[in-house]
Amino acid sequence: MENGSSILVVGSVALDSVVTPKGESREALGGSATYFSLSASFFSKVLVVGVVGEDFPNRHRRVLEERSIDLSGLQVIQKGKTFRWVGEFGKDLNQARTLETHLNVFEHFRPKLEPEQKEAPVVFLANIDPELQWEVLAQMTHPKLVACDTMNYWISSKRAALKELLSQVHIFFVNEEEVKLLTQEENVLKAGRILSEWGPEVVVIKKGENGALLLAEGQYYAFPAYPVEDVVDPTGAGDTFAGGFLGYLAGAGSSVAMRDVQQWKRAAVHGSVMASFTVEDFSTRRLEGLASVHLEERYRKFLELLRVEDPSLILPTVG
Ligand code: AMP
Q1: CATH number of the domain where residue 132 is located
Q2: C-alpha angle 294/299/304, rounded to 5°?
Q3: Which atom of ligand 1 is nearest to the CA of 15?
Q4: Quick check: is 130 in a domain?
Q5: What spacing in Å lies between the alpha carbon of 18 and ligand 1's midpoint?
Q6: How many domains does the chain contain in total?
Q7: What's the gap in Å between 44 CA and the centre of ligand 1?
Q8: What span, in angstroms and rounded, lies between the C-alpha atoms of 272 and 294?
Q9: Which residue is closest in CA terms to ligand 1's atom 2?
């Protein structure tokens, strides 16, 4: 882990209130940067850029610190209120319904990066106002790998800024509904191609429990989700996927300079494995109790599940 590249992430650090068919959680730790960093921290060093209010509980902060996540870029606004998101999932666990979004301290947030933050080789512009994503990217000195995510909230309100941002990123994580909304194309595969023409080298279309599609070098690769029988709360699955994906690419034993399809595929499998843990409990609870051996075990099992043998294809050819 120590020899890998560090990842800078800008995104929301939130208090989430979520209802799912399995129960509910109130004012729990959430936010795109939170899920991403917890997940990526299993593979590489993570530096968070974001903002919270005075009301952000210390116990939430400790969850991130316990995974050695660098919070020096997490501003605390005195008398300010932390970003809050209220959402629910019905029987269709693939689709979150936003009930309330309170930007609070994010409304006036102007990120100013420190030298160490500017030099991070990998940047994840997690789901937040595309103008803030842009402000962070503009301060980076020489990022080797830039990835971003977004949400229907920003696609509807800041489409132009988002489209411009996409011309500067290498990897774009987007879900099925968002890709349609962004491109106005109903066919997901065609929509993905439109997005890749806007700039990103790799487009990852997340489809919840139906897995993910990866578009790289003009070709689609499909991945199932790691099978989880008891999904409790899908909140954060997308950011956790991105954390596993980029964390793996930035981690020791890997290299951000290595860019080939096999590498993207391994990254996608890491993303799926991490996301499969997040959905097993509310908020970040499952990630908090996780040890590297658990994810290694699931990673191996997933590779095994993905393997297809066909002896008829390896018979010697005649003539
Ligand atoms: P995901 O389920 O991976 O798409 O992300 C869920 C997280 O995104 C939740 O923890 C929310 O706090 C956060 N979130 C929801 N809406 C927004 C928004 N408009 N901007 C930034 N973060 C958000």
Answers
A1: 3.40.1190.20
A2: 130
A3: 12
A4: yes
A5: 11
A6: 1
A7: 22
A8: 14
A9: 236
